[in-house]
Structures are given as structure tokens and as C-alpha cells.
């Protein structure tokens, strides 16, 4: 019998014993010396007929349950008398040896030891390095620094010992994979600390339509941290690295739980995370986490109904269809059915699995239709999601794909523009009233040929009143000599200079004017024509000041200059090269597609569904 069938047998057998109040740890089943006693043959025959199994299988099952009951009693007595707790450790994930036991194994310890101490004990038990393990119980990663009792671990608690490894590899390589998890967490935390006007990364949290959400900075940081860990976990899961994905998911879970309930209840991210965690439990075949799995699935279902509507009517109104999101419900029903099965609630399990089977049928994509749309130039992902969104209608699917691509482009274009404005605004400083300088007003003043430094200072003094700013500029000519705020990063090529020189201007004047107008040929030529080919130094060009005089003009300018020194970079929150490299690595495999989590082929789900439906159909009533 396979592990699922064996576990199911023990569940049903235990239910029969409890219903009939059969106590295997007492005579005649167990002697006074706790040895095997006598099991009436009539009892074995009865259970064999009821469960449709052989008498040998029933006899072996009864003996296993008897030994388990005696062990539990001894463990309870030892804990009460000596304070020594017994935990049930199940090894999950790839192990260095296929012979290594996957059954729950007892491990004695004091509950006042730390998580790190427990890792050492588990490592000794299985002959592996503690640094390659992650311990999980009750849906949480066991903290290394806190005591077991303070983390809610009790006598008899089930603990998953997750091996961080992708294959039969050396300890050093397993440690490297564990380091990858820790490195990802560090990089995600650093990314979440970046501000809205960060110059290296544009970090946006979007709604179901891809529109950025406006959140307080503290909550945006928490959500960014949680969602980044979640996305990195999903990337690992796609690569079949379940033992890396699960710790990242649980880390994300801990961060999500730092957010207000109102935020978690208004978006579906946390519900999807809960589904992903339970999916990992299933792939790791860790049935000891069933209580946590059941609670998470309840959370997912409640959140989906709140976000999408009882009959997905809110989702249909927002996205014009519900086909794609049915993938989430299919997996939800499948997992609910599996949890119910292992709890012995066979009727409920059958109902859930039937619902999953029905939704799976709705989500089936015809290969011919898929190819038809792909021949039009769309990707397989776009074709699959489009067909699901429009229930297999090719014409509607194509129209849907085109519309969504257009919407996505517009949203991305707008988001990039707003980010650039925020980055530019950061350089402009704040007004006397503490508000950021209005970038649009600033650009208006530049279009009126006012120097950048003067324009920014005038808006600061005028509290973003553009009319007053113009008056200030006209009455205070000394502002025209302030250094520029935005030092260009546009490369002025020889070809650009030659174009300007071809109109009769000198190369020196052409370069200076192109630099001032960030490579804008038309504006540079207009300016030179206006001043008879001589670019006026007072109009905001870079004056040949020393570094010290440049920085001493005003602290507001030096702190917002885009060409800072290395020390200025750090003080202003800019990334150093190593940090930037780490973050680039972090985001390299994170999808920017808002529907990426819905693009499942469902082949794995289909196989699991068939397995459990077969078990139910062959199970006794």
C-alpha cells in the first residue's frame, strides 16, 4: 500500500475503534508488561469485511495502533514526571539518502531549549547538518533564538524538518541553498525600504486592474516585503524547489500578518499565499500540518468571497469575466477535498473533489484553439488566459487579449511617468510649507526658459504658487545664477553636435546648449538662434565652480543633486553597487505580469484529483 492508502486505513481503523470504545492499550490486547496480548479473530474479521481489506492488513494495522497508543501514554507520563517532552519529527524535502525514514519519529527534549538547540538535535538524529534544516510547526518557522515553549510547542507537537536541497548533493551545496533563502529575505527587506521616489527601483503595489494603490509608507513597506517574498517563493515553486518555496511563503505569511486586517481583507494576495502554502504541504506529503492547512483554506475561501463576491459578481464587474480566477477556486476545492479526505470526512471530500472536477472541465483549453491564437502572434500564456477568460470563444479571447495588453501598456506608461516625476521631485526639495515642489509647475518654468535652479527655488519660496514664483524670478535676478538642480545624464553624441554645428554654431556652444536641454536638439537650436549663437552662462548652464563653492550655495541643492559623491549617495539612501546587484538578482525572476499566478497548465492538479477520486471510489462506506 502507498503512503496515502496506509494513512487512510489507519484513519478509518482508528475511527472504528473509537466508535466502539476499543482500548488497545488495555487487556486483552496488551499484557501487564505492555507486550502484545490477544486480539480476537472475530474483531479482525469484522474490520476486514467493513473496510474491504485482508485480515493480515487489519491485524498489522491494529498492532501499529496499539504500539502508538502505548508510546503516547509513556510519553505523557514521562513529561508529567520528568518534564521531558516528546516531539514528532517528520523529515520533508529532498534527503541525502532515500533510505532515510519519512515517517514521524519521536524526539525527546526539554521545551525550554531554543529552536537552534532543537535544530542541532534533529540534525544529530538524521545525520545531517543543522544549517541545512528549516523547522516548521503550526504553519510557522521555528525561531532559532526563542524557547520552544514560548513558540507554542508542546509535548506531542508535530514538527516538519524541511531539508533545504534540490537533489542528492553535498552539505556545502545544501547550505548554499539555505543561504539563498536568507539572502532573498535580506534583499526583500532592503527592497521594501526603498521610497516612492527611489532612483533605482520603481516599487508599486497595484490593485486588480494594475492601478497603483496609495498606502501609508509603513504599510507599503510591510506589503512590499511580504509580496516580494511571496513572489520569490512562487518562482522557486515553478522551478520545483518546494523546499525553498515553503520557507519563503511562511516568511511572507509572517510579514502579511503585521498588516492591518482591513488591508488583508481587501486584496486577494493573502488568500493566494495561503493556497500556495497548503499546496507545498501537499507536495511534501506532510499530513501533520493538516490543522494549519484547514485553517488556511478557510481563510482563502472567506477572502475570495469578500474580494470577488459570493458568485464572483464583483470580479466580473472589475475584469469583465471570471474564467481566469476559476483556477484559484479549482485548487481551493481540490485542497479542501484532500484535507477532508485525510480527516476521514469522505462525503465532504467527495463533494469538494467533484466541484474541483467540474471547474477543471470549465478551465480546459482546446489545443487547436490555443494554436489558432498563437499563430496570430500571441504567446501561449496570453492564449491560455484569454480562452479561459472568455470560456473558449476564440474571437472574444483575442479581443480580450488585445484590450488587456493595451490597458497594461497604458497603466505601465502612467506608472513610469509618475515614478520619473517623483524621482525628479525629490531633487527639487520642498516648499516653505513642507510640500514637495510641483514638478509640472517646475517644467512650465523651464519651458519659459528660466534656469532649473532658479525655477525650483522660486517654487519653494512661493509654496508652489506659479504666478508668485514667476514674480519672484522677475524681481530677484540673483536666483538666475543658482546651480542647476537636475544635472543631465543624457549622452551628448558627436552626431548631435554635428547637427547643431551644421547650422553655423560652434561646437563649444552646441555642446553646452545640448547639455542644458538634455539632448533636445530643437530647444538647443532655438536657444542659440535666440541669442545669436552665444549660449548665455546665466541661463542655467554649468558654471565652472569648484566642488566646494557648488555645495555651499544651499544645502537644499547639494542634497538633491543627482551627481552626488559616494558619501552623499549613502546618506541620501542611494544603493551602492553591491546592494544594487543584490536587488537586481532579487527581482530578476519576479514576474511583472499581474495574472502570472493564474497561468497554470493544471496537469499536476489533474493527476492529484484522479488519485484521490480513485481512493474515495475504492474506499468502504
Automatic annotation (TrEMBL):
Coiled coil: none
Gene Ontology BP terms: regulation of ubiquitin-dependent protein catabolic process
One Pfam family recorded for the sequence: SASH1_Homeodomain
Residue ranges of every copy of the Ubiquitin-like domain listed in the record: 85-163
Region (Disordered): 540-573
Domain of life: Eukaryota
Biased composition (Low complexity): 540-572
Domain UBA: 364-404, 436-476, 491-531
UniProt xrefs under SMART domains: UBA
Protein name in the entry: NEDD8 ultimate buster 1
Annotated source species: Biomphalaria glabrata
